[in-house]
Amino acid sequence: MICGVHNTDLLVCCPRGAFQSPFDDQTYPGSVPGGVYVPTTPSPPRRDQFTCGQPAVRSKIRGLGSHPWVARVGFLNALPAAVSGSKAGQVDYPCAGSIISRTDILTAAHCALAKSDNHELHTCCELVETDVCSRYSVRLGEYDGEGEIDCTVEFCGPEVQDILISKVTVHPLFVAKNFSNDVAILKLDAPMNFTVTAQPICLLQNPQVQLIGRQGQLVGWGKTPGQE
């Protein structure tokens, strides 16, 4: 069972308790002339071969690595602190998205088009000086927002990935008044690396699947009504 990460390598845990090998020095295949050792336990997945919708961290951990497909969508503050109340060039992350490929993030259209509170979707650095402008607008692999590397008592994840947005595609039938067809895709300027904290979510392949009445799970860093 995969139970953690060390320096981006997956750790495999074995059940507790005594274990006695069925082989001894006389019967172990490696000691028999012509014997061949064949491993029966599959190796953990390679770091570049993750399965969509399946967290690589499998244990009682419910935090870091449990929802690796969630990305943070950044907005760039274009005005100085005296006007906006925050530092010019600072990137805030009020929206989230889902990783669907190495270069694509699925998000809400109202986030992709938002230009409120003197912020706009972060796709370039033309509005402020480059020395105060972070050239990134999607952050991948972050959990608590406290630093470049997130840690729990079990393990530390890999460093977060910050990648610039190169293209925004909004659903052609999006209606802002009632949020119908509230979907957009953000194309990244460079492909991300899949890690235990940055993996894709699965998309439905069968359009006939009925999800009405099914329980869903909401994950992200967005604000709900009443929050500051």
From TrEMBL:
<dbReference type="GO" id="GO:0004252">
    <property type="term" value="F:serine-type endopeptidase activity"/>
</dbReference>
<dbReference type="InterPro" id="IPR001254">
    <property type="entry name" value="Trypsin_dom"/>
</dbReference>
<dbReference type="InterPro" id="IPR009003">
    <property type="entry name" value="Peptidase_S1_PA"/>
</dbReference>
<protein>
    <recommendedName>
        <fullName>Peptidase S1 domain-containing protein</fullName>
    </recommendedName>
</protein>
<dbReference type="Pfam" id="PF00089">
    <property type="entry name" value="Trypsin"/>
</dbReference>
<dbReference type="InterPro" id="IPR043504">
    <property type="entry name" value="Peptidase_S1_PA_chymotrypsin"/>
</dbReference>
<keyword id="KW-0732">Signal</keyword>
<dbReference type="InterPro" id="IPR018114">
    <property type="entry name" value="TRYPSIN_HIS"/>
</dbReference>
<keyword id="KW-0325">Glycoprotein</keyword>
<dbReference type="GO" id="GO:0006508">
    <property type="term" value="P:proteolysis"/>
</dbReference>
<keyword id="KW-1015">Disulfide bond</keyword>
<feature type="domain" description="Peptidase S1">
    <location>
        <begin position="32"/>
        <end position="228"/>
    </location>
</feature>
<dbReference type="InterPro" id="IPR001314">
    <property type="entry name" value="Peptidase_S1A"/>
</dbReference>
<comment type="similarity">
    <text>Belongs to the peptidase S1 family. CLIP subfamily.</text>
</comment>
